[in-house]
Amino acid sequence: IEGHGHVQREDRLPELLACGIEGRDLDGVLLRVDRQVHAHALLARIAPRYDVLPLIRRHFEIRYADQNWVIYDTVRKYGLGYNRRTTREIRLDRAALPAIEQKADAQEHLCQELWQRYYDAATIRSRNNPALHRRQLPRRYWRYLTEKNSKDRTP
Length: 155
Prior knowledge:
Radius of gyration: 17 Å
Mean pLDDT: 75
Helix content: 40-55%
């Protein structure tokens, strides 16, 4: 893995494959987790099993090249910050992340409310398949999804 300064051994192949799979899965989740922190930045918090930020870095540099963003790994206490030109590794103290999230403006809260309404309206209750839903989107990813943060939501 680029930038980590150690050589991967063949006996770690299953672990590396699992890490790659989780990185691929997070790509889709992060697209739905993006939160506008203020008028010029997006914030996504993640809590993956593996250190996937090096794996997803390039994808988000390309996908969101025209925006400032931060993807923060709450398990490993570091993240990636992008300023429309370069991506840097960032570290925040415990108090900094909640303080940053509190800066979300009224428009962000409106967007979250509209997304929840859309999600509820688009859901076909008769076709609800909780087992399939959990297999495609494991519960460990639900923590940061807007549509999963209401108490009356079901898979």
